[in-house]
Amino acid sequence: MIFESHNRRRSRLAKEASLLWMLIKSSRVLLTIAAAGSGIAAYYAFSLEGLCSIMASLEARSLAFVGLPSVNCGQYLIVGDHVFQIVPDCLYLDWLLLSLPFLAYRQQKLANVIIIAIAIATVPLLNFLRMFMSIYLNVAKNWDWYWSHDLPDYFTWYGTFAMVVTIWFVHQRAAMKQKLEKERTAADSA
């Protein structure tokens, strides 16, 4: 009995490995990875100083609204005796460009457009709030920059990207499995 369950487990693992290899070889997977790479190449190809200045200006106005006098000097933001530089990595455009191909995996084009539109609308807003809270906690509550900015940034960037890729991978695996089942059924009936 134990030997039989061990063989079933080995058989299941062999099927999963075969499915994984077929998934990696599929053109859809390779196109998604190539599109993500192209997005990152585009991110590094352009100067984003203008967008950084806009974000710094918005942060300065928001911080002034909650009682923290702020001065915006291009990419730099002066809040009290603290100076912050808004750099392209602060914008999360790299996350957005890297994630968009992994968000557009559905068969229905309209669903892909809606998901991408939601991501394009919400990621900058949530990132603005993340930056605002980081600066506010650092200046008003005297939190260390590591705790107010760096640690939440790492968890947010890598955690959400890992979640997006995992969901995409699970969907691709299920689609490949369904395709193989259809082919197997068609071969059995022929």
Describe the 3D structure.
This protein folds into two domains: about 1-45 and about 90-175, no CATH class; about 45-90, no CATH class. Helix content is about 75%, strand content about 5%. It has six helices and three strands. A hairpin with a 2-residue loop joins β2 and β3. The longest helix is centred in the C-terminal third of the chain and has 45 residues, at about 145-190. The chain starts with a helix and ends with a helix.
Number of spatially distinct domains: 2
Strand content: 5-15%
Order of helices and strands: HHHEEEHHH
Major sheet characteristics: 3 strands, antiparallel
Poorly predicted spans: none
Indicate the percent of residues in helices. over 70%
Q: In what order do the strands lie side by side in the largest sheet? A: 1-2-3
Tally of strands: 3
Radius of gyration: 23 Å
Q: Between the first and last Cα atoms, what is the distance in angstroms?
A: 35 Å
Overall pLDDT score: 88
The SS-based structural class is: mainly alpha
Number of helices: 6
Q: What characteristic shape results from the CA principal axes? A: elongated
